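thread: overnight batch results

M.L. [08:02]
morning all. the overnight job finished for the chain we discussed friday. pasting input first so we're all looking at the same thing
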Amino acid sequence: GLLTEKRKSNTLEIVEVFLSPRGKGKLEDLRNAYESLKNNVGTSTKNLPVSLNVCSLNQEVVDNSDWLFIGIHHKDLRTALKALTFRKDQILISMASAVTRE
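M.L. [08:03]
and the structure it wrote out:
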């Protein structure tokens, strides 16, 4: 999943979470986990996302996100990243193993 955020001084407020098209199947589980988390946190939900969204294209996720979490197999990472256009201010976090920074 990928996300967008708004910064307020030194805190991070997650406003929306954008999922790749492959994330559509996980959306219901994420919504259930989110609701459970909101219920357990009580009234302090200011750092929880306002909405969960599934995009039709990976580029749409990138275009809407400030922070990007990429969770794909390392052998597919280079090809996937070459197909996308990023902004210079975006933060990319790879969860792939055995990846060197180039």
